[in-house]
Design goal:
Chain A: This is Simple sugar transport system ATP-binding protein. The complex is a heterotetramer of chains A (515), B (360), C (301) and D (314). By secondary structure, chain A is an alpha/beta fold. Chain A is built from 18 helices and 23 strands. In chain A, strands 13, 16, 19, 20, 21, 22 and 23 form a seven-stranded mixed sheet that branches. A six-stranded mixed sheet of chain A has the order 6-7-8-3-9-10, sandwiched between helices. Chain B has one domain: ABC transporter involved in vitamin B12 uptake, BtuC, CATH 1.10.3470. A two-stranded antiparallel sheet of chain B has the order 1-2. The structure holds adenosine-5'-triphosphate (ATP) (2 copies) and magnesium ion (2 copies).
Chain lengths: 515, 360, 301, 314
């Protein structure tokens, strides 16, 4: 990959940034340079302070110490007004946030125009904006329907809108916080192709990712944060994946390997299940899960995985078809009955569906078992018992928190996932539904998730793994089925599949054509 | 630019400090209209304190006014805990009062120990059922409950008027739209001779302990809190969201209904369409002042009642328009609201220079 | 003698027609130096008893008010403060030892204004807008209707209650609706009705207070209430320490000057005025009694 | 039956419907602007009262009618500012702050009115707005009396509906307001001020609400009364949801409400002897609830409604 010239001018400098949240130091004296035409990858565990650092750069947060310097129009570096996104935008910094910052009730065009025009203007100048965007889209390859309502876009499309927003404002520095966390492999590839094109045209780009492979493939330089401090800053050419993983977590990381499985009897069966009405529906889905196997479901997001997971979680009742676990019919079950039947569910959106942020870690660990005798007697809660159990789980699952009584909202994504794992896997469920279980998690947390899922499989549970990450699917699954536009293909042994085939099927090429 | 940082647990000294500051701010702001009306501020405050706490009569009057506020405050607090926005305590209060009157004026007869519980139960049930309508509309059809509960207030008040001019009108009432008086056996007993203070206060205090216990110690309370903080996650974890909303709705309505029972069976003896000077709406204020804490509700209600009764009495003693009382209540409310913020957040004035930032 | 201390408790603001008459009479007594006067207005039902007690505790000699919605409580408080005289608006009778009652017994002038209206209407449709259908309102409306039909059997009435003591815009809308239905005279029990009449150029009948200056050329006739006879008698009784729990209601009758009847002679037919004046004399002489009918009046169209 | 048809055929019925709707139009447009920016404003009932009192008093003191309108708007804006400060940067509960503002605005208005005018036997009157006589238009058969014989404030209300729709959908400001009610982070990441937009919208919305109050004392009537707002503000909160936060539907909702009210007043004189009056009075509320049930499924809420936004907080 072509490197930017060594003497390319520095566009941006973070100068000794320190940021504290109460007792916690999220950024600890971080120095970082970004040159014109350079793609810099920022790595680090969950909670290492990556997002915080970028938020300071963009003015969402004010640093406790240190400053941000930008060169305006290629000139001298000058200090950027802290705490002002407005100033950052003016200085040519564009940011694509970890959580999208789009107004869903507006069109794509209006989202892009937002904030670019004088608020006192009597009319939004949409026509010239359209022309400029048409030009931008052809040059960058970021195409998206300008008149679509954002609420109707897929995640990948939303991502493009976010980048277009920055480009439309003539950004010279582009920051992307985990841009590929929710993208399919193909979408990720497209994105990086675009980023390279933009870098070649002179932009400085910083992106955050947990996926080492793509970091290696797409960046010129890699900076690693650990515990808020920068622990490495190297040209990509001098790095390898193992070394990076160690830098991030501070110790050696072992590869997760799937041993040979011993699939047993059929456990969990979906027959002709249809649910939902919109484009996020599923149609006539058949699925058989055996004990002691991991069945992977691959698919581009928005093809019905969410609905499938909701049906299996007992949140949505199918309009047709049936669902059975062993001899037990579960077609009309709700979440409660699913849990009681021995079905563990790991939700794809762990912040929304996984935890009650305002409640304590211990309460979140007990929430699925709150009506069980272990948590209550005559309707009265048994606090001591709940606490003891929470302490045991915190130890067993290595949940990093300030004690079982701290609010769950303060935990990092990886630790929130551990809470969910702990409470769902605790009762040795027969079936585990894991939807996007490693999304947004760092290397350490991810390997922990993998280990737990493999343990469940070894114990004889059937695991249904819904994921968009092909590496993950290939590594964990015994068989893989592909979901496209609400239809689920027949599962095939992983050994008979390869990335290319799966990618094509996910993109909608028919099974026959692929064979 | 102001910034807020959430605080951890608050020290008692700080709590007291903030409360005192809020009270002082309220006193200073309330002095403005007093001066405008030509009052001597110190005398006025003296009279206010005397009017609410200065004699057994004043004190019991204050408690009498606090009793319905505690109940409507609890009604709001418990509903808001589950993020069920019940703005309809006023209507539920009237429904409770109407039911109490229906049962307590001769529908059934018997000794006190039968009639009093019957009246209480009827009122609670009526209030609960009224709240069930918006709750079911919300859970089944997704209709916004802020609006439905608000609108039902008007419907119920009109219904009460209709009943008071129709089937439930007192035949001995000379045509006035009022109900028959509640039988003596059905009335809540007085707590003291010659004073108006009645068992409604005891019911209110018991209710606040009950709700505290429910929320803190029981599975239902756990479910209410979980649904209120994150309904989606609660649902995913197998908590019956709909059933929880229905329970909360019934409970909230029942508490407001009890307020109506107290006013009609403990205080007035019969029902008129102007039974409540907005207790239902004030309940929301009480609940929020209390930070939705059931025990806090008691103190918030005492506070609001003291301010009102004291200021009302002061306006009478000084001959100033008694609208001043409502005004002082409103000012105190706003001050206390703002002060609550200083307890929950650390407030920093962020300036553009990082150097200054660190200097702090 | 020192002026005696008088307090009044109103459940509505003092502008309301009804209490404004009490307020006016008490203010006049204060002007004369007979009393010192203080009042609380817009007192909620729940608070009424406390306010009564507070005034009694303050050593008021006379407390004036309306007991309508708080009969029982008011009577109980009065009994506990025998030193204070209470003069309360009430639909019931007086009570020992110190609870006297009054009411706005102006059905007589209402009857007379009805006679004028009945004779003046051309469309034979009269609209009536009231607040609530309570006896105090019903009896005046019924007397008015009786007066009108006595001179014009063909006259028809439209009756609406707006279920509020104060909502002039709403009263006005009700009045407009009646004008649409052909009413050419409106009985203005509430504020807002005369405004509609004025705007549409028809006539209105005033009630309780004289608003003819506010609506020149619109107010055809009015039945007025005067509280001075009632209040002054009560004050005299208190001063001379002879206060009795009596029914002061009759002091609102025309013969005592508690009610009066006025007519704008430029708007009414001369013979109608003459007939009404004749009836007025009969009433004052005790030769004619206007019926008291407290039932809710209904539209007759 | 024919009587009922006759009601709908009469121009004065439609004129009444528009007249009754006017304060609601101001109120619902004001509430809509606040809620579009993500803030529920239950201060509306008090702001109506304050607008009614302040506007009237200004005229009574000699400010002239349009001066009164301006004073009412400024008063509304003032109370809106209080609500805005409490709910936006301070992030307090929007319900409570709103009810607090209602208490404050109402009691302050009453107190000022009573303290300024302690000795009024009957409420003092002003020379209120009169229905316009627009050449040609007002003389049209049926349409003239139904639509064009209204006071200037009614036309101002209609103009505000159109202006609000235009601003909301066509101008950068409107887009920003819509965005801040949906996702404040979107606004902040584009360099706009969440607080500024929200505070501005609440102040502007409240100023418009206050005009609804001013209409009551300066157009519908010519004096100020205690309790004269009588729940009209609350109705506007319901109408806003009914209208799915769209100005056009808001106008429609207010007009429907006005028409129903005008209708029930007329119907009451027809059948009042058989059915208790309260039944009629209940109808608008019950119908509003029914309408909400119908639209509930289809509305898309401003997603950030009721959610305070704290900069840089998790
Ligand atoms: N507003 C805040 N208040 C308190 N603590 C915060 C806040 N924002 C971040 N933190 C804490 O600061 C630390 C760094 O968080 P940050 O979001 O920067 O991590 P990250 O490296 O982006 O992690 P991830 O990979 O999960 O996105 C975490 O421990 C987090 O809990
Ligand atoms: N994420 C959410 N946010 C707000 N309200 C919600 C949410 N999820 C559910 N609700 C409310 O809860 C109502 C009830 O949901 P639902 O009936 O699906 O619950 P449930 O768990 O199936 O309950 P039950 O088992 O008692 O039937 C919904 O109509 C909605 O009003
Ligand atoms: Mg992050
Ligand atoms: Mg269900």
């Amino acid at each position: 990959m072509a490197l930017p010239a060594k003497d390319a001018p520095v566009l941006l400098r973070l100068d000794g940034i320190t940021k504290r949240f109460g007792a916690l130091t999220a950024n600890d004296g971080v120095y970082l340079d970004l040159r014109q035409g350079e793609i810099l990858a920022l790595l680090g565990e969950n909670g290492a302070g990556k997002t915080t650092l970028m938020n300071i750069l963009f003015g969402h947060y004010v640093a406790d110490e240190g400053s941000v310097l930008v060169s305006r129009d290629g000139g001298e570096l000058a200090q950027l007004e802290p705490g002002s996104p407005h100033a950052a935008l003016d200085a040519g910094i564009g940011m694509v946030h970890q959580h999208f910052t789009l107004a869903e009730n507006l069109s794509v065009l209006d989202n892009i125009l937002l904030g670019t025009e004088k608020l006192s203007a009597l009319k939004s100048a949409r026509a010239p904006a359209r022309r400029k965007l048409a030009d931008l889209m052809t040059r960058s390859g970021l195409t998206v329907g300008l008149d679509m309502r954002v609420s109707q876009l897929s995640v990948g499309e939303k991502q493009r809108v976010e980048i277009l927003k920055a480009l439309y404002r003539n950004a010279r520095v582009l920051v992307l916080d985990e841009p590929t966390a929710v993208l399919t492999p193909q979408e990720s590839d497209t994105l990086f192709a675009i980023l390279k094109k933009l870098a070649a045209a002179g932009l400085g780009i910083v992106f955050i990712s947990h996926k080492l492979a793509e970091v290696m493939a797409a960046s010129h330089r890699i900076a690693v944060l650990r515990g808020g401090a920068k622990v490495a800053d190297l040209p990509t050419s001098q790095c390898d994946q193992r070394q990076l993983a160690e830098l991030m977590v501070g110790h050696e990381v072992s590869e997760t390997v799937r041993g040979a499985g011993a699939p047993g009897d059929t456990l969990f069966v979906l027959t002709g299940v249809s649910a939902g009405e919109s484009r996020e529906s599923i149609r006539d889905v058949n699925l058989e899960l055996r004990s002691g196997e991991i069945l992977g479901i691959a698919g581009v997001s928005g093809n019905g995985q969410t609905m499938l997971a909701r049906v299996i979680s007992g949140l949505e009742t199918p309009v047709a078809g049936s669902m059975r676990l062993g001899d037990r019919a579960l077609t009309h079950a709700n979440a409660r009955t699913m849990i009681d039947a021995g079905l563990a569910r790991i939700p794809e959106d762990r912040h929304r569906d996984g935890i009650v942020g305002a409640m304590t870690v211990s309460e979140n660990l007990a929430i699925e078992a709150i009506r069980k005798p272990e948590s209550q007697r005559f309707g009265l809660l048994r606090f001591a018992a709940m606490r003891d159990k929470a302490k045991a789980m915190i130890d067993a699952y290595d949940i990093r928190c300030q004690g079982e009584d701290s609010p769950a909202r303060l935990l990092s994504g990886g630790n929130i996932q551990k809470i969910v794992l702990a409470r769902t896997l605790e009762g040795e469920p027969k079936v585990v539904l894991a939807a996007q279980p490693s999304r947004g998690l760092d290397v350490g947390a991810t390997s922990e998730v993998y280990r737990r899922l493999l343990d469940a499989r070894a114990r004889g549970a059937g695991v249904l793994l819904i994921s968009e990450d092909l590496d993950e699917l290939m590594r964990l699954s015994d068989r893989i089925a592909v979901i496209h536009r609400g239809h689920l293909s027949a599962a095939e042994p992983t050994e008979t599949l390869d990335r290319g085939t799966l990618g094509l099927r996910m993109a909608g090429h028919t099974m026959e054509a692929a064979e | 630019m102001i910034r807020f940082e959430p605080r951890g647990p608050v020290a008692v000294s700080r709590m007291i400090g903030v409360s005192v500051t809020a009270a002082l701010a309220a006193l200073i702001l309330a002095a403005i209209p007093m001066l405008f009306a030509g009052l001597s501020v110190f005398d006025a405050y003296g009279l206010m304190i005397k009017g609410a706490w200065g004699s057994m009569f004043a004190f019991t009057e204050m408690l009498t006014r606090a009793a319905p506020l505690i109940l409507t405050g609890l009604a709001a607090a418990v509903a808001f805990r589950a993020k069920l926005w019940n703005i309809g305590a006023e209507g539920q209060l009237y429904a409770g009062a109407l039911a109490a009157v229906a049962v307590g004026t001769g529908l059934i007869s018997g000794p006190s120990f039968v009639l009093v519980p019957a009246v209480i139960l009827a009122g609670a049930l009526a209030g609960g059922l009224v709240m069930l309508v918006p709750t079911l509309l919300k859970t089944r059809l997704g209709v916004d409950e802020v609006v439905t509960t608000l609108l039902l207030n008007f419907v119920i008040l009109l219904f009460v008027q209709m009943m008071l001019e129709g089937p439930m009108q007192d035949p001995m009432g000379m045509g006035w739209p009022q109900s028959e008086p509640i039988l003596d056996e059905a009335a809540l007993p007085k707590l003291m001779d010659r004073m108006r203070i009645h068992w409604g206060l005891v019911i209110a205090l018991a209710a606040s302990l009950g709700v505290y216990f429910l929320l803190k110690r029981t599975v239902w309370g756990f479910e209410i809190r979980a649904v209120g903080e994150n309904a989606a996650a609660a649902r995913h974890a197998g908590i019956p969201v709909t059933a929880t909303f229905v329970r909360v709705g019934l409970l909230s309505g029942a508490l407001a209904g009890l307020a109506g029972v107290g006013e009609v069976a403990g205080l007035k003896g019969y029902l008129t369409a102007d039974l409540s000077p907005g207790f239902g709406y004030s309940g929301i204020v009480v609940a929020m002042l209390a930070g939705l804490s059931p025990i806090g509700v008691v103190f918030a209600a005492l506070f609001i009642a003291s301010i009102f009764v004291g200021a009302d009495s002061m306006s009478r003693a000084t001959g100033v328009s008694n609208y001043l009382a409502d005004l002082i209540v409103a000012i105190s409310l706003l001050c206390v609201l703002v002060s609550g913020l200083f307890l929950r957040f650390r407030i920093r004035l962020a300036t553009s220079s990082p150097a200054q930032e660190t200097a702090k | 003698a020192d002026p005696i201390k008088v307090a009044a408790i109103y459940t509505v603001p003092v502008e309301q027609q009804w209490v404004s008459r009490i307020d006016k009479a008490l203010k006049a007594a204060q002007e004369r130096g007979d009393i010192t006067y203080t009042f609380s207005e817009n007192v909620a039902n729940t608070d009424y008893e406390r306010v009564m007690r507070e005034y009694a505790e303050q050593g008021m000699d006379l407390v004036v008010g309306e007991a309508f919605a708080v009969e029982r409580a008011a009577r109980k408080v009065a009994a506990e403060y025998p030193e204070t005289a209470f003069l309360m608006g009430s639909s019931f009778g007086p009570a020992q030892p110190n609870f006297a009652v009054f009411d706005n017994w102006i059905h007589e002038p209402s009857y007379l204004s009805g006679m004028i209206a009945g004779a003046t209407t051309k469309s034979n449709i009269i609209g009536m807008v009231g607040g609530y259908a309570i006896p105090e309102v019903n009896r005046l409306m019924n007397a008015f209707m009786e007066g009108a039909t006595s001179v014009n059997p063909d006259v028809k009435f439209l009756v609406t209650f707006i279920n509020s003591w104060y909502d002039p815009p709403k009263a006005k809308e009700s009045a407009f609706a009646m004008i649409d239905k052909g009413a050419d005279i409106l009985y203005a029990e509430r504020f807002g009705v005369s405004d509609a009449a004025k705007e549409k150029g028809i006539l209105a009948i005033g009630n309780v207070i004289d608003t003819s200056d506010d609506y020149p050329g619109t107010i055809l006739s009015s039945a007025l209430w005067h509280m001075e006879p009632t209040v002054d008698r009560a004050i005299d009784a208190v001063v001379s320490e002879e206060f009795e729990p009596a029914d002061y209601g009759p002091y609102s009758f025309m013969s005592y000057g508690g009610g009066s009847f006025i007519v704008d002679e430029s708007l009414a037919p001369a013979d109608a005025v003459e007939a009404a004046k004749a009836k007025e004399a009969e009433i004052n002489d005790g030769l004619f009694r206007v019926n008291v009918n407290d039932s809710e009046p209904k539209s007759t169209m | 039956m024919s009587d009922i048809l006759e009601i709908f055929m009469s121009a004065s019925f439609w004129a009444a419907a528009i007249r009754i709707a006017t304060p609601l139009i101001f109120g619902v447009i004001g509430a809509l602007i606040c809620e579009r920016a993500g803030v529920l404003n239950l201060g509306i009932e008090g702001i109506f009262t304050a607008g009614a009192m302040a506007g009237w008093m200004a005229v009574w003191l000699g400010a002239g009618l349009w001066g009164g309108v301006l004073v009412a708007a400024l008063t509304g804006g003032f109370f809106g500012l209080i609500h805005a400060v409490l709910t936006v940067p301070l992030g307090l509960s929007q319900h409570v702050s709103g009810i607090g503002v209602t208490l404050f605005a109402t009691s302050l208005s009453y107190f000022i009115y009573r303290t300024a005018l302690p000795d009024v036997a009957s409420p003092p009157r002003i020379e209120a707005f009169q229905p316009l006589d627009i050449p040609v238009l007002s003389d049209l058969p049926f349409l003239g009396p139904a639509l064009f014989q209204q006071t200037p404030l009614t036309f101002l209300a209609l103009f505000l509906v159109a202006a609000t729709a235009y601003v909301l959908y066509r101008t950068p400001l409107g887009l920003a307001i819509q965005a801040v009610g949906d996702n404040p982070a979107a606004v902040e990441s584009q360099g706009l001020s969440v607080y500024g937009l929200r505070i501005g919208a609440i102040v502007a919305g409240s100023a418009i609400m206050a005009l609804g109050g001013a209409f009551l004392t300066m157009s519908a009537f010519d004096a100020f009364f205690f309790g004269m707002v009588n729940g009209r503000g609350w109705i506007c909160i319901a109408l806003t949801v009914f209208a799915s936060w769209r100005p056009g539907k808001a106008l429609l909702g207010a007009l429907l409400f006005g028409a129903f009210d005008a209708f029930q007043v007329r119907l009451q004189t027809e059948v009042g002897s058989f059915i208790p009056g309260q039944m009629f009075l209940m109808m608008p509320y019950i119908l509003s609830i029914a309408a909400l049930i119908v639209v509930a499924r289809r509305t898309d809420y401003p997603r950030a409604l009721l959610v305070p936004y704290f900069k840089g907080q998790r």
